[in-house]
Amino acid sequence: MTKKQTPHKFRGLEVDPHHDHIQGPANAPVTLMEYGDYQCPYCGAAYPIAKQIQRRFGDNLCFVFRNFPLAQIHPDAEVAAEAAEAAAAQNKFWEMHDYLYEHQDALTPPQLIAAAKLLGLDVERFTDDLRRHAYAERVREDFLSGVRAGVNGTPTFFINAVRHDGSWDFDTLSEAINAELKQRIAA
Amino acid sequence: MNDVISAHPLSRSETIETQGYTRTPTAKSGPLPAGVAAPDFSLQAAPDHSVSLKDFRGKRLILAFYPADWSPVCGDQMALYNEVLPEFQRLHADLLGISVDGAWCHRAFAEDRKLRFPLLSDFEPKGEVARAYGVYRQQDGFTERALFVIDEQGIIRWSYVSPITVNPGADGILNALEELESKGVAA
Lengths: 187, 187
Description:
Chain A is an alpha+beta fold. Chain A has helices spanning 41-57, 77-88, 93-102, 109-118, 123-131, 136-149, 170-186; strands at 21-23, 30-36, 61-67, 156-159, 162-163.
């Protein structure tokens, strides 16, 4: 799996801080972008690793999360993604993102509404957004941008817009980011 | 269509047998390239019915050869295509998955993964269609992870073989279909 493929680089992977959900400085030397699914167990396993990576690289790293729900095999993934976007509309994307990955077995609409309450969201607005699928289009947009960029499963990581085909365990991911960082700093 | 194939400088099955088909089979023999007529086939799509290439005349078709039902990478790849299916359809293309697994195995796999497109069994004689397309791995007894985009006239317009452990994603297919779309119906 560590075999290098032709790197995938696309304009669709450029970060738009007004549209994307980002943590860390938008102009950080390295951007780590994840395409993830809230019901995917591998994404659940990657969640604490991404946190650990963020702690290690601090302001040298911009972390971006985009939705990639595989709705046919993960029946709650789509509504969970819409819930995170509905929370984003109330400036609580990351709170919801973290909550969902910490409660992957509780992603049905009533459970999502309970989560919204817990996170202090305007529950009426949140519920209405879910019911109307207010953010379905946004989720689909993320999904398609991922498909066009070569996302081939979840989670898929991109480091400065190049798909990371290696393992995403902490050491491998961290080493890849470090290599990119050194290159940026040298440039 | 078949006469175009026999007129091809190297008959595919001949190429495979004479070259022994070692670990890098595609470098020498390789998948049928763009511009070649797609060899016809008739394969079981379910225990009780078959599908032929001829059935898709006048339509665009994606053939996704993959090594085996149930293996992790294939599962991801088919799950991904299942989600991208509406995009393929928007670009007027149908999708068929093909492996050497039997029809009953395919049925169980498709039910488990909720696949919304047919899986064909290149089962008896084993791998015959894959050989005709230049994507059979003699030493392994299964097919390459290979993609073909076929136009309305039954001509291959794009083909690609991915490293066996790498899920090729859907971006190459979409690019090929969009190119067909922009050229309109082939002259």
